[in-house]
Design goal:
64% helix; mainly alpha; 6 helices
């Protein structure tokens, strides 16, 4: 990787971490949890009201992509946003996590999964 690519990657990573920290804190969870692999997915499942074992589904190839999209949409709904915002969270997470974390959005609670 070139220096420019490394810089871009690290910048995007910093935005995801900063935005995710704020999102977790707004949802009443510890912000530092975004830094811990696997535990951050567990905390995310708690924020969006999915069972803990969805973390295991994130380890299955191809299934993990579908689960990640669903979790992003559920996260958007937990903050009063729509499914389109959730798709944005999946594809452009550095931008959309910062919008959620640093914007005026408030945590509304886990969406209903009926």
């Amino acid at each position: 990787m070139s220096t420019t690519q490394n810089l871009f990657f690290l910048t995007a990573l910093a935005f995801v971490i900063a935005g995710g920290w704020q999102v977790f804190a707004k949802a009443g969870q510890p912000g530092w949890a975004i830094l811990v692999p696997f535990y951050n997915i567990y905390v995310l499942t708690q924020i969006v009201g999915r069972p803990w074992w969805w973390l295991l589904l994130c380890l299955v190839p191809f299934v993990s992509i579908v689960i990640a999209i669903i979790l992003c949409i559920d996260l958007a709904k937990a903050f009063g946003r729509g499914a389109g915002f959730g798709v944005g969270l999946f594809f452009l997470s550095p931008i959309f996590m910062c919008i959620l974390g640093f914007g005026s959005d408030t945590y509304k609670g886990a969406p209903s999964h009926a």
